[in-house]
Amino acid sequence: MNAFRTCPTTGLKVHSQADALIKANAVVATVTLLIGGIAALLVLLTRWQAVLLLDAEMFYRMLTVHGMNMLIFFIIFFEMAVLYFASAVLLNARVPAAWLGWVAFALMVVGTVMVEWTMWTGRADVLFTSYVPLRAHPLYYLGVILFAVGALVVVGHFFAILVVAKREKTYEGSVPLVTFGALTAAIIAAVTLLHGAIIYIPTFLWSLDMMPVDPQLYRLVWWGLGHSSQQINVAAMVAIWYLLGAFTVGAVVLNEKVSRSAFVLYILFISMASAHHLLVDPGFGPAWKIWNTSYFMYMAVMASMIHGFTVPAGMELGMRLRGATQGLFGWLKRAPWGDPGFSSLVFSVVVFGFVGGITGVTFGTEQINIIAHNTLRIPGHFHATVVSGTAMAFMGVTYYVIPLIFRREIAFYKLAKIQPYLFAIGMVVFSMAMTFAGTFGVPRRHWDISFSMAPFQPEFSPAVDLIIGVMAVGGLLGIVGGAIYIVVTVVSVFFGKRIPEGESGLGMEGRGLPLGITNPPRPLTSADDGSDLESRGWLGTIPGTMVLVLIFLLAFITYYFVNWNLLSFVWRVG
Amino acid sequence: MFRTGIEPPERVWWKKVHKTEKVWVWIAFGWCMVLFAMMPLWHARGGQNPSGIRATVGADAFRDRVNEFIADYQVGTDGNIPVVEPPPGSDIYLEAAMWYWRPVLRLQRGAEYTLHLSSLDLNHGFSLYPLNINFQVVPGYDYGLRVTPNEAGEFHIVCNEFCGIGHHLMVGKVIVIDPPAAADAGTPSDRADVGSDASADAGGGR
Predict the structure, then answer these.
(1) What is the DSSP letter of A243?
(2) A50-95, pLDDT tens digit by residue?
């Protein structure tokens, strides 16, 4: 069958339509990332009160553009590519109905264009959340609906690929863990996109004056889309952690049962997160809030804490099995820090956990939300999860997708190597400064915190100016990192040096290929069962990871209780 | 034998969990239970909970309540916004709309009030500065929160939910005065000049 090519690097059989669909979705993802990135720069230079670049109207317009492009279009187009990769490519399977893939792709593109048009022409200055009764042009809602339907078709297509692969026995036994993670993301996506349909269709009709929509109900169902779509990102990101771990250092799966059960916990409970946005809303009682905000007694948080352990532990064990056995952290010292796939992976895990995860759980606590809701603490939190976590992981995997799928060398490879560092450092500074500014009560989504034209002028602590300045510097650094990513990927994909057919890239150092391709980790054999590794009591054979996660836990406990303490000082309210 | 996440696992992968991994899973589980227990515990013992009295209310009905409230307790104006000084323990009403908060509230430190929040048009965000107390204000819903100011001073209400082009203009005011017994001068309503009430520690909310 010539519809397939055999990947010389991995030995996987890749269907030509899988190749094409991955490329198309990845390219559009990058275009929307560019649009969202330009908007990011404009928004940043306006919130930096010393610059205040845009006027109020343009600021809110660009904020809408930034939110929609980054959180919906970029992320979901990229995830569509991930779904095709994790099913067709990893399972050597064919794409059973490629035409359907293209119909879905067309729907998503048309929807995107409709939304872009309404936003850029000022017909939808409603921000990402478009809270009813804020009103946008009907085509805005229709565009989102078309996009969601297209994405839903891809999710269905992904399930079909899994079924076909199973029936045609293209792989042995169970699907790989990465595919299992992508399956998790797909199931959550189906639930999420249904929420999207349930809320955007009535809102579309409401925009045509055909039916009423209750503002509180809108917030409930809309966040079933808005927050759950971030949980697609979490599942997809964790799947990519396992993928990049395997590519870069030959990370092993400690225990399939544990990792897969953790993914199942995501499927079961993570969609309850709509409540995170409704903790200080008038429409819901405490029991409902506690139960939902905690994802059924924090079972989805436990899932993330498990992945946050098993991913680095798998990397540590994989490296120790290959001889990096010195001390607690000898494996980290010997790790391929010059491989942008590896550095992205590490930053993604660390920043997602330490900054994004800890702040998210803390702010999502029913009462603590009183001192966090709608302040800059909230965007501070989600820029650490969705940007430094998800987008960082997506960027990292791109450095493997370019050679493996596009069959091109990475252009400006030296720049690509420092890109994850710039982006990660910039975004960490940005997110932390933003979160810190929020503790002073600085509101999110606000054009002028000097309130210069308001009837009263509350004055923020002078520290706020400084913190906002730090935030701006971090943000600019992050934008530079993002711009490098876009330049590198666009130039590589369209003008990059082709990798000759049949060439695996093995040993081709200095040629714009990541280390995981030029010097892949040695394949493990049945002799590598870990029996000759030193076991340190309850720290076992992965003492480094155990120390790291205990530091994480300590940071978590500290931040969590500091916030309870902060809360106890404000007025009694109940 | 160990495999990576991109290879299909061994035929039977439901295996015993290694001790180290088990330790972490139990630690994570224990911490999750602490996280969960803290919320009901704070309802029982803590002073800050977003429960409130929750009801629906139409925009016109709420506006009427606010007007009645202002008529009953107005003591002056600040700019063109009425200033009210309700008695401790009473129900107080704050109207949010594009782009103002009405009225200005004068409250006594240490007294409990039931603060009713609602919006006449879009979603708004009640954010009491510099204390950083935040609540969502949703049109059609009455959020009745029992609040007890714990320090005197001048506070501002910033809108922190996007509500259109004039969002940044939407700033209100709350003045907290010491209770008459503690204050050395007369009854609270003697203080006509409400604007000068800001005490020195107003900025040191935290």
Answers:
(1) H
(2) 999 999 999 999 999 999 999 999 999 999 999 999 999 999 999 9
pLDDT tens digits for range B29-38:
999 999 999 9
Bridge-partner residues for A306, per DSSP?
none
**Which residue has tokens 């209770």?**
B179
Looking at per-residue confidence, does A527 or A250 come out higher?
A: A250
The continuous run of DSSP H or E covering A82 comes out as helix A75-84
Which residues are registered as beta bridge partners of B83?
Answer: B76, B104
Structural domains for chain A? 337-450+458-518 (1.20.210.10)
What ipTM does the predicted assembly reach?
0.95
Residues 6+ apart with CB under 8 A from B64: none
Q: pLDDT by residue (tens digit) across B104-135?
A: 999 999 999 999 999 999 999 999 999 999 99
Per DSSP, A225 falls in state H
What would the mean pLDDT of A367-379 be, rounded to a whole number?
Answer: 98
Pairing of strands B153-159, B124-129: antiparallel
Show which of residues 36-55 on chain A sit within 8 Å of chain B, judged by CB atoms: none
Distance CA B107, CA B199 (A): 14
Contact partners, residue A307, CB within 8 Å, separation at least 6: A238, A241, A259, A262
With CA atoms as reference, report the closest residue to A232 among A272, A259, A192.
A192
Q: Do A173 and B17 touch (CB under 8 A)?
A: no
CB–CB contact B48 A446 (8 Å):
no
- Look at chain A and count its residues: 574
Q: Tell me the helix, strand and coil percentages in chain B, rounded to 5.
A: 25, 35, 40
CA-closest candidate to residue A364, choices A352, A351, A381: A381
Residue B199, pLDDT score: 39
CB contact under 8 A, B81 and A455: yes
Q: Which helix (H) or strand (E) holds A29?
A: helix A16-47
- A481 CB neighbour count, 10 Å cutoff: 21
The Cα A193–Cα A228 span in angstroms is 9
Report pLDDT digits (tens) over A257-268.
999 999 999 999
Q: Say yes or no: A286 contacts chain B, CB-CB below 8 A.
A: yes
pLDDT of residue A205: 97
